[in-house]
Specification:
The chain has 252 residues and is of the alpha+beta class. It has helices spanning 2-18, 36-52, 82-86, 157-170, 180-188, 202-214, 243-250, and strands at 24-26, 33-35, 57-60, 73-80, 93-100, 103-111, 116-121, 126-128, 131-132, 144-147, 173-175, 194-200, 218-221, 233-238.
């Protein structure tokens, strides 16, 4: 099934690139948008994925979703990094996770701008374009820290910026890409060492969390004993050398 899903992700990425001038629509919340490209890519993936696995369910950003169940469920972000897509920043990705009993068993993230296909199956490791990837071994004091600002949640501004300040003072340097999926892939393949955001949705992390874990990194749902996919929550992804200090900052 992994091969079929990576093929669908690649086709979805090609669709995304064809919609350069897609109409833009305001969604609820501050600076929150959807484009006709998001809608078209999601419709394509919904049709194809549900056909691929009869009896499965579909949980995605651009629709009303019923609560997750234990049934096999595709959790999809058709374009992670919509604002980047709108502004032609070339930092957006298609994200497809498959959950069983609310835990990811397969994850695929495709960045069509770089032609990078990240994938993982539970217990089988993580890959980039078919080659195994692994977390970095960079210590905390030299860590490159990626972060998201949770821009739709004004109540988190002070905590987000305060945590980023502490990481900048105590670790290496900061980066902000605007795509949680791409940031998680960067953790998985060792391009960065820590990623945090204080509120993400299941479609932001369902695929990337598995890729991170299968590459040997840590994925933590802040405030939960184990990774959590039922609703919005804060997350930390990092290499194992950085976990203790990163959690100390985020849980302060």
């Amino acid at each position: 099934m992994l091969t079929q899903i990576t093929n669908l992700a690649r086709e979805a990425g090609r669709m995304m690139l064809k919609y350069r001038d897609a109409a833009i629509h305001q969604k609820e919340g501050h600076f929150n948008f959807v484009t006709d490209a998001d809608v078209a890519v999601q419709a394509f993936l919904k049709k194809e994925l549900l056909s691929l696995l009869p009896g499965s369910r579909f949980f995605a950003e651009e629709q009303e979703n019923a609560p997750l169940t234990d049934a096999p469920t595709f959790v999809v972000d058709p374009i992670d990094g919509t604002l980047n897509f709108m502004r032609c920043r070339n930092l957006s990705a298609v994200s497809i996770g498959l959950l069983e009993k609310k835990r990811p068993v397969l994850g695929v993230i495709y960045n069509p701008y770089a032609d990078e296909m990240f994938s993982a199956e539970a217990g089988k490791g993580a890959q980039l374009n078919g080659r195994a990837i692994h977390a970095s071994q960079t210590p905390f004091e030299n860590a490159m820290v990626c972060f998201g600002t949770s821009p739709y949640d004004a109540d988190l501004v002070n905590r987000s910026i305060g945590a980023a300040r502490q990481f900048l003072l105590q670790a290496g340097d900061l980066r902000r890409s605007g795509s949680a999926a791409i940031d998680l892939c960067d953790i998985a393949c060792g391009r960065a060492d820590i990623f945090f955001e204080l509120r993400l949705r299941p479609w932001d992390v369902a695929a990337g969390s598995l890729i991170v874990e299968e590459a040997g990194s840590v994925f933590v749902s802040l405030g939960h004993e184990r990774p959590y996919y039922d609703d919005a929550c804060g997350i930390l992804a990092c290499n194992r050398l950085c976990e203790a200090k990163a959690r100390e900052i985020l849980e302060a």
